[in-house]
Amino acid sequence: MSRPSRILVTGAAGFLGRAVVAGLTRGGSSVRAAVRRPPPFSFADGVEVVEHGDLAQDFDWRPLLEGVNRVVHLAGIAHAGRGIAAERYDQVNRQATARLAAAAARAGVVHFVLVSSIRAQSGAAADHMLSERDAPAPTDDYGRSKLAAEGEVRAAGVPFTILRPVVLYGPGVKGNFATLLRVARSPMPLPLKDFVNRRSFLGVNNFLSALAFVLDEAAGRGEIYVAADPGPALPLADVVATLRKAQRRRPLLVSLPTDFVEIPLRLIGRAELWERFGGELVVDPGKLIAAGWHPAHDTRAGLAALLQAAALRAASA
Q1: What one-character-per-residue DSSP string does 278-300 give?
Q2: Per the count of CB atoms within 10 A, which of 23, 109, 195, 202 is most buried?
Q3: Residue 120 class from Cβ within 10 Å (0-12 exposed, 13-18 middle, 19+ buried)?
Q4: Which of 237, 235, 283, 257 is nearest to 132 (CA)?
């Protein structure tokens, strides 16, 4: 980076936040890790840990921003879930972001990176390859709150970059990808051979390299980038097969017409669950790559590395 960086990372105790703090620290940045409550683990030496209030409430961001010249904003509700009110998404994802971005502008922060979501641009599935050229069309309260948060950052007057990552995977992953890992670890044959729908994913290592790139690259200020692993998106059946092969196991995938899954889910009002696992969502990270981002691996290699790292951790435990 062109000048020494002191970076505030919000959401630092989460799956992605913990990796971001570690990655930035390894890269030589001074990091202030903002958390809602003390995490059940220790950050690396030199990381300053600060606590803040409930994001749904108004509180003073100034003490957290003192001496900071960059912000990576990860904090918020990070998934679409049943039972979460639209008002809660708006309070935590939009309003808290608006207050932080405005405070960062007043504090003279030189770069504000908002980690948004591909769901600010699309629903859980799309009928074509997505890129930044597509008009945003979120389909649920979560996606709408993330898109609204982006608008607040653009309006705040702080130099910004917005990243819209797809589903992430890496050590300690939760959510949809954790479900896939559990499925892949099952010893049973799986009726997934006919799930040829392609899904884009993003390895944490690739995300960290993309984040480091946009933090370093002045040309990315004011830009929005979708972020996904490079190369062809894998069919869901291939994802599970790759995970099993990385465990030195046979894929053991058998045929089952997808209608046997899709139709019952739609009948019980769970069409969105079907779209998350049975629909296509292919994202083109070409704009970010053309700007100069060099991802470390494609999805197949990233999945294999994830399982190998998990096996090494288990063996050393």
Answers
A1: HS-B-B--HHHHHHT---S--HH
A2: 202
A3: buried
A4: 283
- Rg of the chain over all Cα atoms, to the nearest angstrom: 20
The answer to whether residue 248 sits within a structural domain is no
Residue 87 included in any domain: yes
Distance CA 179, CA 293 (A): 29
Whether 306 contacts 220, CB under 8 Å = no
- Global pTM reads 0.92
Q: Are 74 and 121 in contact (CB under 8 A)?
A: no
pLDDT at residue 13, rounded to an integer: 95
Number of domains in the chain: 1
User: CA-based diameter of the chain, in Å?
Assistant: 58
Strands 234-235 and 198-199: antiparallel
Nearest to 93 by CA among 128, 125, 56, 57: 56
The two tokens of residue 101 are 């971005």
Kindly give the parts of the chain with pLDDT less than 70.
Answer: 1-4, 311-317
Angle, helix 299-316 to helix 204-216, in steps of 10 degrees? 110
For residue 212, the enclosing domain spans: 6-169+201-229
